[in-house]
Here is the input.
Amino acid sequence: MNVGSSSPVRERGGCLTLYLVASIVVSILVLLLLLLTGAFVGVVNASGALAETGSPSIPIFPLLLDGVGVLVSVAGFVGAWTWKKWGIYLLVASFVISALGGLISGNASSAVLGLAVEVGILWYLIRDKWAWFEG
Here is the structure.
């Protein structure tokens, strides 16, 4: 507590700080990877290389869905860093978007398990700090 201050000092703690910083860095790297993958898919589809083998073109929709999920998660991590409840809500939304992407690509068990683990970790890290988050 600050001496002479009427409000308590918000402390993120080491685990929450590490989680938020590492998640922002990893999310940005994943976004860059998705951009590169999307460019590669676009080149392959445009070149018609798969058409010669009789294979259909590679769908871009799952990459777009993942990209939206990563952008939402970066915004959520920044919001959580600044003690905003909307940041936590965005994180949960990005976890759901990620799970939907997994379901669409046929990975139902990993999508459900991933959603449960992500929400569980986030809950554990903020469970005693929720009152400090602002509207």
